Amino acid sequence: MEQLDLYLSIAIKAAKMSGDILKRNFKKQFIIEDKGNRDIVTSIDKASEELLYRYFQKVTPEINFYGEETLGNIEGISWVVDPLDGTKNYVHRIPYFGVSIALCEDLLPIVGVVYFPLLGELYMAIKGNGAFLVKNNEKSIFVKKQRILCSSTERIDHCFLATGFPHSKSQLLGDYMSELENVLKNVSAVRRFGSAAYDLCQVAKGTFDGFWEHGLESWDMAAGALIAEEAGCTVSKSDGAPWNIKSPTIFVSNPKLHTKLLDIFSSK
Ligand code: 2AM
Ligand code: CA
Questions:
Q1: Is the pTM of this model over 0.85?
Q2: Domain match, 82 and 171 both
Q3: CATH code for the domain in which residue 235 is found
Q4: Which regions in the chain score pLDDT beneath 50?
């Protein structure tokens, strides 16, 4: 087995274990703490990260670990994880949440897994090998691994986009609102789900033609960005320059639309 295949299977196992924690506790009572800046963390985010940390330390002690709740070391080769992406959805019992796991080398993802346990969808990619979706059946058994591809929409006025608000960074709001106004005047529609990992996987699957957000963190997008790229998307910063997991802005779309969309963003 190739080394990256091995790391992918480790990431899938970790995502399933973490996803089980998220699913099991979804309807239960849990502790909600204030992180400041109108952000929150639950005892389930923490339990999921603890599990991921322990598992990765045990099976890949040679690899660094960097998670949203405990941080760590992102340099060199590192697991970059969001133990619960979509915490506010989770707290409000909305099923758009999941666990996001990326293996990164020098700030670029090379393996990515995102699992949405209530939707029964697990997305995965290895750099250079395409992107895949595996679904759960009614008995929670994973079936039907299928290759996923981005959309082929070419017309801006047909374009269906996802975005996220710069919720915790209010200094970004003014520019974002004028950008959003310009986008809304040009595209077919814009949706906002509250989980960057979900948005990115939906662009990878061709549901959305593109996604953009400012003020993101590495754990929000590392795995989803690789999955989108491997599904054929172009991933960049908003000026078209190469993206990495420390770029706070991500701009993802099918390649036919990318330059046209960048033009709309730069003409605000
Ligand atoms: P989280 O649930 O892991 O914190 C980018 O939008 C990320 O910010 C989302 O994936 C989500 O990650 C978090 N987020 C989204 N909307 C938010 C909001 N209104 N307040 C705080 N965090 C939010
Ligand atoms: Ca999170």
A1: yes
A2: no
A3: 3.40.190.80
A4: none
Ligand 1 centre to CA of 199 (Å) is 12
Residue 112's region, left for phi above 0, alpha for psi from -120 to 50, else beta, is beta
Please choose, from the candidates 98, 103, 84, 86, the residue with its C-alpha nearest in 3D space to the C-alpha of residue 9. Answer: 103
Residues 214, 253: one domain?
yes
pLDDT for residue 91: 98
Q: Do 115 and 135 belong together in one domain?
A: yes
Residues 188 and 209: their CA atoms lie apart, in Å, by: 10
Instruction: Write down the residue that tokens 């090379």 correspond to.
Output: 110
Q: Which ligand 1 atom is the nearest neighbour of the CA of 164?
A: 6
Do residues 138 and 160 both lie within one domain? no
Alpha-helix residue ranges (DSSP H) falling in 113-217: 173-186, 196-204
Instruction: Give, for 253, the enclosing helix (H) or strand (E).
Output: strand 250-253
Q: Ligand 1 centroid to 162 CA: how many Å?
A: 14
- Here the CATH number for the domain that contains residue 14 is 3.30.540.10
Say what the pLDDT of residue 144 is: 80
Domain of residue 72: give its range.
2-147
- Our count of domains for the chain comes to 2
Burial-class residue 27 by CB neighbours within 10 Å (0-12, 13-18, 19+). exposed
Mutating to test ligand 1, I would choose from 48, 87, 172 the residue with most ligand atoms within 8 A of its C-beta, which is 87
pLDDT digits 0-9 by tens, 70-86: 999 999 999 999 999 99
- Based on the domain organization, do 122 and 32 belong to the same domain? yes
